[in-house]
Amino acid sequence: MSFIQRVGSSAPEGYPVGANKSYHLYDPTDIWRFTLLWTLLLFGVVHLVVALWACAIQWRNWKLIWITPIVFVVIGGLEALIAGSIVGGLLGGIYQSGYFKMSTWIPLVWAIINVLVLILSSFAIQGAL
């Protein structure tokens, strides 16, 4: 019998930092879902911005340029599905094994980290290490 009431949030939302009421995630499925949704959202925005930039630069080739945003968003969605599932699954396992409660801000932070890794990995590093 548990004396702790475990109430999860239904949507990937944050709460104001100084708020009296806070939401926490306990179930690994919720942690995975929140991380996946935030990663999908941020990857979609980044890929859409890059696709619009590519369309703005290549505006002369108007017959083929319309497919660029579609291709970029589909590729971004697949990347987000893989990255969000891996990170969300690991976070869920770690937090469950340690019996920790997770703030609803943590999946957003990890989605931002995923996006930053994506952006940094897009640059070619051609130096001698």
Q: In a nutshell, what does this entry contain?
A:
The protein is mostly helical and 129 residues long. It contains 3 helices and 2 strands. It has one domain (26-117).
Which keywords apply here?
transmembrane helix, two-stranded antiparallel ribbon, 2 strands, transmembrane, disordered N terminus, 129 residues, membrane
Order of helices and strands: EHHEH
Straight-line distance between termini: 57 Å
Could you give the order of strands across the largest sheet?
Answer: 1-2
DSSP summary: helix tally: 3
Low-confidence stretches: 1-5
Helix content: 55-70%
Radius of gyration: 19 Å
Largest sheet: 2 strands, antiparallel
Shape, per Cα inertia axes: elongated
By helix and strand content, what is the structural category?
mainly alpha
Number of strands: 2
Tell me the domain tally.
Answer: 1
- Rounded average pLDDT: 82
- Beta-strand residue percentage: under 5%
Keywords: Membrane, Transmembrane, Transmembrane helix
Transmembrane segments: 31-57, 64-92, 104-125
Subcellular location: Membrane
Protein name: Integral membrane protein
